[in-house]
Amino acid sequence: MKKLKMSKLKVIPEKSLTNNSRIVGLLAQLEKINAESSESDTARYVTSKILHLAQSQEKTRREMTAKGSTGMEILLSTLENTKDLQTTLNILSILVELVSAGGGRRVSFLVTKGGSQILLQLLMNASKESPPHEELMVQIHSILAKIGPKDKKFGVKARINGALNITLNLVKQNLQNHRLVLPCLQLLRVYSANSVNSVSLGKNGVVELMFKIIGPFSKKNSSLIKVALDTLAALLKSKTNARRAVDRGYVQVLLTIYVDWHRHDNRHRNMLIRKGILQSLKSVTNIKLGRKAFIDANGMKILYNTSQECLAVRTLDPLVNTSSLIMRKCFPKNRLPLPTIKSSFHFQLPVIPVTGPVAQLYSLPPEVDDVVDESDDNDDIDVEAENETENEDDLDQNFKDYDLISKEPKPFVFEGKVRGPIVVPTAGEETSGNSGSLGKVVMKENIPSRGDEGEKKSTFMDLAKENIKDDRTLQQQPAPGFTAETKKDCSLPLTVLTCAKACPHMAACGNVLFEGRTVQLGKLCCTGVETEDEDTESNSSVEQASVEVPDGPTLHDPDLYIEIVKNTKSVPEYSEVAYPDYFGHIPPPFKEPILERPYGVQRTKIAQDIERLIHQSDIIDRVVYDLDNPNYAIPEEGDILKFNSKFESGNLRKVIQIRKNEYDLILNSDINSNHYHQWFYFEVSGMRLGVAYRFNIINCEKSNSQFNYGMQPLMYSVQEALNGRPWWIRMGIDICYYKNHFSRSSVAAGGQKGKSYYTITFTVNFPHKDDVCYFAYHYPYTYSTLQMHLQKLESAHNPQQIYFRKDVLCETLSGNTCPLVTITAMPESNYYEHLCQFRNRPYVFLSARVHPGETNASWVMKGTLEYLMSNNPTAQSLRESYIFKIVPMLNPDGVINGNHRCSLSGEDLNRQWQSPNPDLHPTIYHAKGLLQYLAAVKRLPLVYCDYHGHSRKKNVFMYGCSIKETVWRTNDNATSCDVVEDTGYRTLPKILSHIAPAFCMSSCSFVVEKSKESTARVVVWREIGVQRSYTMESTLCGCDQGKYKGLQIGTRELEEMGAKFCVGLLRLKRLTSPLEYNLPSSLLDFENDLIESSCKVTSPTTYVLDEDEPRFLEEVDYSAESNDELDIELAENVGDYEPSAQEEVLSDSELSRTYLP
Q1: What pLDDT shows up at residue 359?
Q2: CA of residue 1020 relative to chain centroid, distance
Q3: How far, in whole angstroms, is CA 541 from its chain's centroid?
Q4: Beta partners for residue 949, in sequence order
Q5: What angle do CA 212, 216, 222 make, to 5 degrees?
Q6: Catalytic: 1144?
Q7: Per-residue pLDDT tens over the stretch 845-856
Q8: Are 955 and 1044 in contact (CB under 8 A)?
Q9: Where is the Peptidase M14 domain positioned along the sequence (predicted)?
Q10: Which of the listed residues 216, 305, 409, 474 has the most CB atoms within 10 Å of its CB?
């Protein structure tokens, strides 16, 4: 029975009040008194009774603020009309009780009943008495301070009523009366939320007044000081007030007070006061003058030292985080140490676009400094608005002039071709004077040498090809005229190929002797070797340059790769080959989990950045690699790392040594562009064992990255490869991605001023001394690798069974061919019906790698191509079902030259599909033309899919096109019910979610956004008419669901996804025309269930936001703009996730906002 009563109580709405309720009777009596203007004694008595009930019973408070109740109106009406002081005080006390216990809803209820205006009027009337009644003023201010934040017009109402000066004067006249001053300060803080009020109060001396209240450490009046600091922080958000505070030297005062509280608050009981001081400093440093005053007052060192002392106590994290934010804001904005933000490489376009970023780039006068703007600060203009923001570039012009002297010996002049030889680096020991450098194997025959008059040609050095096995078990198979030698004293045996006969011309040339290009050769590359090498084992292994994958023949052939590279045209005319591309990559035989992020790692990295300013003498600031100055010199010290990126797909522009083992790296812009820095691929050598090297890539542009959510960069060790482990592995610790103090010019930021670059930082302990290692954003896949794979596939296939044709779709801007592959099954015979079936198979059109930095798309495409060319019976069924037209690399030039996003035209090719220019966008123009041709001859592809990579989300997923779901999303006038649409566009993604472990249906979206209208997916759907037109996005990081949950993605999983996509196409065929297949009925039933379930399109009430990651603790602070005026309560708001603004130019390849199925 009790349970029944309780449940009944719960469901009774507040508005159904009982007639015999005491409070109803009292309110009715009060209403009657108002109507009759009765004696004040009765009103005093009734209100005191109501107050007693309100104080003692939650039921009473609930009844008075229920929706159907008139209690609030009666109280406010009495308050407005009564002349009796005690009645007024009683009603104010009742209102305080109501709003104190009821949370935001009751406060809002009071506001909707006109409470703000009545109470402000009461304040005006009360102020006319001399002196004002203290208790009355305390009560009025207390309640106004509570309801003000809930009234959007409160600031304006208070100003019009003249309440600002009343409250301010009360504080001035009663500074020692803390009971009165406290609610007045609380109300001043509410007033100050309105910037016009803030300026008005400032002119009347409110800032100076606050500094009379706050002061050094004291055990008394802590609550008063806390409120005064909160009020001050709100006031100082006004630039006018902030300038006033700076002019009066208050920045120094705040720092002094902060240090005093920091020193004396040993038990950390006054953390809120300490944070209040920091919030005031945060507000005042929003202006340039404030930042200068902060620097001049030694604020950086003060906050750095105090925050370091707070690190040991976890509860003080809000202080550390706010201090860090202030220091980062005040850190002088630096320009990147570059002559220009445009690419180091120039390619002259055949046609200059009339409009757009490329046109602007070409129209810039040569003398314009595009790295940074002279000044973006508007501090001198005294303009206040409701929502002020300030963009600034507080420039630090004190840059050192770097000594740029020759790094490499001047190249010899040779006869022959202009292009240099193809060079493959190997990890080997150097001559004693240059022990940290790498050796290189030259992969070109008959290279003329001028080192010796009698010797016309140097001998070609080759690598014998053998299976990778343990060196001890492998028999030597040297190339003709060569011996393989291995150093005994190396920590890992290094296979070295040396000439069988002496080559004196090699030594005479100082190992720099190949046509037209500087090439450094390690001493072990030829027989000019020292005697200590003579006793090496003669039967050591010759490592294989191509590795057999266990489950099938390899597509990698290093000799073929070298031949292809010779014909690959790059803008910088590369003549070196990166070892991983030459030697090949096989997936490692172990799992690589998503990295757990240690607590506070980002804060620590930023503190180290701040130390650069505080302890400038510790900074080396030495250029050790520079594309813009080819004659720079590498310091000869053995403990300095050597860098290189002069090979296909390489991207590294400049390296500066910051500390002994810390380096800042700057990436090159895409050619004919001044931004898109994200892809990197570079070589490092000369490392030592047991040393933690920190690398900071300092000019990234995306506002967030999976590096903040467990992704690691990739590393390839040459010594590991020579020892039978030729694979890229995830490497690095203490990884994070955060906004730094280098500012983008308005030219670089698309007209916006004061935007910052971002840093990827990671720390590496190398596995071997003097190794040659490569780092990459993701698994590299070069244009030459693609051409090699296609040639190997072509040569290995069975022409009686598989129809394989490789055509040239077109030539790119720099003269490289864009391959077009056709794959299907050969007809069963020359009979008419077999030929008809052959010709009438539906088309599937696939493309990939329109964005060069999305190398994962090429690995998925490799999986697709290998599966289609395999002997698998399912693959044969697939070939018999479809004709595949595949453009595996839509942007060869971008891939070759190490671009992240663009082609040589400086434009994102996936935004050119609506009207591609044949001269600037030939691959898109001809791919679209081929699709238009297929449509014209009534052979519209059944499926179009463009493979991409996604930098901010996990898993693999698809974007499709749906009118109906777009209508839902855009809230168009047409209702979704009016749109009739075949939901078959969902079938293929649904199939893939069942068969591909990495695929995630809940991340898929079928919305067409305006910003994506010129992408391949949307144009092929809208213009060509392919209903199943998709973008398939693969994560750069890993998976958070399914079989691979918690693991970083590798090439094995990416290739598997490409193969599973093919299986999905076969299932799609079976579902759309099951009669052609003699399938078991149970399988057909299952697949029919699948299609039916996939077509039940649910209303998209739930969707995933742009970044489908939860906020990590530090993101709120460190991803915020430096002049962000939000009060960041890290400890309180960890769980509150709000999506960041969608990136503009650097948005990922497709829409990140998705529907759940």
Answers
A1: 83
A2: 29
A3: 45
A4: 1034
A5: 80
A6: no
A7: 999 999 999 999
A8: no
A9: 779-1069
A10: 474
What per-residue confidence (pLDDT) applies to 29? 81
Residues with Cβ within 8 Å of 351's Cβ and at least 6 positions away in sequence, in order, are 917, 919, 920
The secondary structure of 984-1000, three-state, reads: HHHHHHHHHHHHCCCEC
Helix, strand, coil content of the chain in percent (nearest 5): 40, 15, 45
In terms of Cβ atoms closer than 10 Å to its own Cβ (0-12, 13-18, 19+), residue 608 is middle
348 exposed, middle or buried (CB, 10 Å; 0-12, 13-18, 19+)?
exposed
| Contact yes or no for 998/956 (Cβ under 8 A) | yes
Tally of CB atoms within 10 A around 830? 8
**369-390 core/surface letters (b: 16 or more CB in 10 A; e: else):** ebbbbeebbebeeeeeeeebeb
Q: Note the pLDDT of residue 40.
A: 73
Condensed to tens digits (0 to 9), the pLDDT of residues 459-480 reads 223 333 333 333 333 333 333 3
Per DSSP (E only), the strands in 705-813 are: 714-717, 729-730, 733-743, 756-765, 772-776, 802-811
- Joined tokens for residue 937: 């001859």
Q: What is the DSSP letter of 973?
A: S
User: Which amino acid belongs to residue 762?
Assistant: F
Each residue of 308-367: pLDDT tens digit?
Answer: 999 989 999 999 999 999 998 899 888 899 998 889 999 999 988 888 788 888 887 776
Q: How far apart are alpha carbons 984 and 249 in whole angstroms? A: 69
| Residue 1021: DSSP 8-state | I
Neighbours of 1136 (CB within 10 A): 9
Bond from prior residue into 318 cis (ω within 30 degrees of 0): no
State the Cα–Cα distance between residues 39 and 44, nearest whole angstrom.
9
**Residues across the chain:** 1157
**Secondary structure in 3-state letters for 494-508:** CEEEEECCCCHHHHH
Sort 163 into a burial class: Cβ within 10 Å, 0-12 / 13-18 / 19+.
buried
**Which residues, 6+ apart, have CB-to-CB distance to 266 below 8 Å?**
none
* Residue tagged active-site, from 392, 430, 683, 1033: 1033
Cα 1043 to the chain's mean position, in Å? 25
Angle at which helices 195-203 and 178-192 pack, to 10 degrees?
130
Token pair for residue 1009?
Answer: 């956004």
Say what the alpha-carbon torsion angle 310, 311, 315, 321 is, to the nearest 10 degrees. 90
Q: What is the mean pLDDT of the chain?
A: 77
